[in-house]
Amino acid sequence: MNNWWKEAIFYHVYLRSFQDSNGDGIGDLQGLINRLDYIADLGIDGIWISPFYQSPHVDFGYDISNHKAVDPRYGTLEDFDKLIEEANKRNIKIVVDIILNHTSDQHPFFIESRQSKDSEKRDWYIWCDPKPDGSPPNNWQGFEPSTWKFDEKTQQYYYHYFYVQQPDLNWRNSDVITEMFSICDFWINKGAAALRLDAINYLVEDPELKDNPITDGVPDYLRNIYQFNQDPIHNLNHPDNHEVLKKLRQHIRSNHPEDPLLIGEIWVPNTQELVNYYGTNDDELQLPFNFFLSTLSQLNAVTCREMLEDFERTLGNFPTTVVLSNHDFPRSTVRYSQEKDSDQVAKLLATFLLTLKGIPFIYYGEELGLRDNPPDTIEEVQDPRGKIDWPSYKGRDGCRTPMPWNNSLNGGFTEGKPWYKLPLDYQQRNVENQVKDPDSILNYYKQVIKIRRNVSALRRGNLILLGDDPNLLAYSRTDEKTQAIIVLNMSSDRCTFELLTSPTFVTQSWSILLSTHNDVKSKTISEKISLQPFEGLIIVPN
Ligand code: NOJ
């Protein structure tokens, strides 16, 4: 079915941290296979796996040296085949992470490109002469203070948006396009149902390499992921990206009749720009990531309502995603709660994530309410970014801790030495304990997922915002058969929600299907409902 993904729930596995099967301290494909029953039991339809290709691992797999091979740390191509087979048995689709913007500097293409100015692959990357004073061609910044690295051998700079070891490919070169499209084909032919396209709005840069305007700090829409002080208008979201994406979609469509899903990592300043990535006639990405909710600096009903209004206005019925966490920024619990409220907020966020209009992506461990465990010292840092700006920015290790499965040594993640420390509270907060506890966050996730399956309005209904309470976010979801009202108290105060705020509902009688708080006195409700701090409710007609 071409549109299987429209009502799917995705689970994002940071492979390195999920489950180790061979004692080297690094999660791997076999480990993931061993845990497929857990994911199936949660109620997941698709798994996005972070990159597992051959790589020097400067950026833990986002620096690829061979796109068509599995890195031995993660397993073999046969393991991937087995993963597809086992996932199929459980009706789970696999999403692979494809990195088209750059390669590793150890990739044979780049090794060849840097050999000489006449190399056949010279134009596959972006090379440029220094300015007359020897400085880089422009002021662009990315993961490092400059995106340009001077190469002694040929006396030119090469461009790398991310680490020095991740040179950008030149997408204005047609051989690059052909080669990279063949990589997409390779993984689709191996059974991937969807591609998550890394940094896909960074492919094409301004041909004149103009300086970016300097700003006071990082622009709001990029606050989760960068530290620089410029607006990257000339190297992110360049209009020429769209032409490439049209070619990509056309290529995929004509080579794979099932029209595999293309999900794009897209950071844009506003929803209007996001809309452009669907193309003019469903001819670019089916699903550009919508990250706006994850950029909220705090959980706040007023700002959430404004954002949702904007989604309704601008995105309308385009399929969109709901993302609160991923492997690049602190987890939602850390961003939106104090430690003392963390578990309540985790359940509230689960309700939010799984009842909004959009396709939910659950980042592994969110279903346990994991909190980050950032490095305490620079020696502990694994992600190079944590070293570049230490201590003002500690990198991304904190949100990538190994998954705690039980309370044994290393939480059952590995029998060896884990590549990074586990969450601080893993001996209490782990899968085994939460499976046993009916009030756990894990069991709460399972309940909401089940409700989403049973109430079709939550998967495909319209969304209408209700009321204007500064602490309560409320909305209804309605389709031709079913209806639900969701009320989320985003504050630490008690609040009251009046069903009367929407005249459409006056005549109906309603009851509480699920509450984040297990001590709800009565399931049947009148016009006024009192909510405890951070309580979330799913209400349905009787
Ligand atoms: C975005 C990925 O999500 C991030 O983890 C990675 O470092 C960069 N792209 C570079 O590939």
Overview features:
Immunoglobulin-like, TIM Barrel, 8-stranded parallel β-sheet, single chain, 542 residues, globular, 21 strands, 25% helix, 17% strand, 14 helices, 3 domains, alpha/beta, binds 1-deoxynojirimycin, Oligo-1,6-glucosidase, domain 2, 6-stranded antiparallel β-sheet
What would you say this structure looks like, in words?
This protein is of the alpha/beta class and 542 residues long. It has 3 domains: 373 residues, Glycosidases (TIM Barrel, Alpha-Beta Barrel); 52 residues, Oligo-1,6-glucosidase, domain 2 (Alpha-Beta Complex); 82 residues, Golgi alpha-mannosidase II (Immunoglobulin-like). Helix content is 25%, strand content 17%. The protein has 14 helices and 21 strands. The strands form 5 sheets. The chain has an 8-stranded parallel beta sheet with strand order 11-10-9-5-2-1-13-12, covered by helices on one side. A 6-stranded antiparallel beta sheet has the order 14-15-16-21-18-19. The longest helix is centred in the middle third of the chain and has 16 residues. The two termini are 34 Å apart. The model has no long low-confidence stretch (mean pLDDT 96). It binds 1-deoxynojirimycin (NOJ). 1-deoxynojirimycin binds next to loops.
